[in-house]
Amino acid sequence: MATDVNTDQALQALRLRIDNLDEKILELISDRARCAEEVARVKMASLPAGEQPVFYRPEREAQVLKRVMERNRGPLGNEEMARLFREIMSSCLALENPLKVAYLGPEGTFSQAAAMKHFGHAVISQPMAAIDEVFREVVAGAVNFGVVPVENSTEGAVNHTLDSFLEHDLVICGEVELRIHHHLLVGDATKTDRITRIYSHAQSLAQCRKWLDAHYPNVERVAVSSNADAARRVKSEWNSAAIAGDMAANLYDLTRLAEKIEDRPDNSTRFLIIGNQEVPPTGDDKTSVIVSMRNKPGALHELLVPFHHNGIDLTRIETRPSRSGKWTYAFFIDFVGHHRDPLIKDVLEKINQEAVALKVLGSYPKAVL
């Protein structure tokens, strides 16, 4: 009996301490929010009439999150702590000026998950039917930023995104890396022993190819516009299943018949944040460019030599047909550094001397989370 009394007293003391800490956390978050409101007032007062201030600063957000992760001493992990701060920052920014963000929809896609991961849940997110529509919304000024997939660790580049960069003049302001987990989803009416078709996006079907071959070799695989669309279709069909992620499963209230069915456990997709504002250096940046070279022997070698001589780390290079002529190509290149860095400026100047065209898509902070 004495042991029970001691336990109750210890728990009561801990709960009281937690209550006191919660009050302090609440007070500090409120203080931070008031500071955000004051920042907005200062910015508005310092600008000429009619000019709009820049409320969202990608480089500032990245620096804050990096500092949080560097100073974190646990027991919460760095990524979990950074996610908590991301949501606080998102809510505080919404007090200054709520961001509008377009993403490849519909609701429940991995693109929406990437948008939430990068901007937090306080933004106004708007689903678009196609990648090019995301670009057009940003160009038109209907939204502040767009979120588009650019490459998957299993299936490679997303060509629609690369082609859209050839057509639109926008700036890459950031990147998001999202671990992709696919689940086999069914609805309440699904007869699980009589599934004859499985819906999903073509890339997702490809990312789960081996698992499907082993478990559903004779079932029709139907590619649709998005995983969320696949999940929506399953709600009204008794003989179908969908491959999609957690957001789609929760949105459409589907059951996970099998979880994490992707062929590679490290399956990830990289997304780009597109906008109209140039991002200053943070000290830990990447740059993306498009280069068109003359169609001659050794053209690719000439393009890569300046990077090698200056010790610049290339992280990705893709080739797409150029719009300037038949059998001509544009190179999409990502590398470490900011285009304002002296070494990077030297590389770009040398490339520009040999290239038919050089377009800097943007320099931006490396993905923090």
UniProtKB/TrEMBL annotation:
This is Bifunctional chorismate mutase/prephenate dehydratase. It holds the Pfam family CM_2. Its EC number is 4.2.1.51, 5.4.99.5. One of its GO terms (cellular component) is cytoplasm. InterPro entries: ACT-like_dom_sf, ACT_dom, Chor_mutase/pphenate_deHydtase, Chorismate_II_sf, CM_dom_sf, CM_II_prokaryot, G/b/e-P-prot_chorismate_mutase, Preph_deHydtase. GO terms for biological process: chorismate metabolic process; L-phenylalanine biosynthetic process. GO terms for molecular function: chorismate mutase activity; prephenate dehydratase activity. The gene is pheA. Residues 100-276 form the Prephenate dehydratase domain. The record marks T269 as: Essential for prephenate dehydratase activity. Catalyzes the Claisen rearrangement of chorismate to prephenate and the decarboxylation/dehydration of prephenate to phenylpyruvate. Residues 5-100 form the Chorismate mutase domain. Signal peptide: none annotated. Its main location: cytoplasm. It comes from the Bacteria. The lineage of its organism: Bacteria, Pseudomonadati, Pseudomonadota, Gammaproteobacteria, Pseudomonadales. It catalyses: chorismate = prephenate; prephenate + H(+) = 3-phenylpyruvate + CO2 + H2O. It is found in: Cytoplasm. Residues 288-365 form the ACT domain.
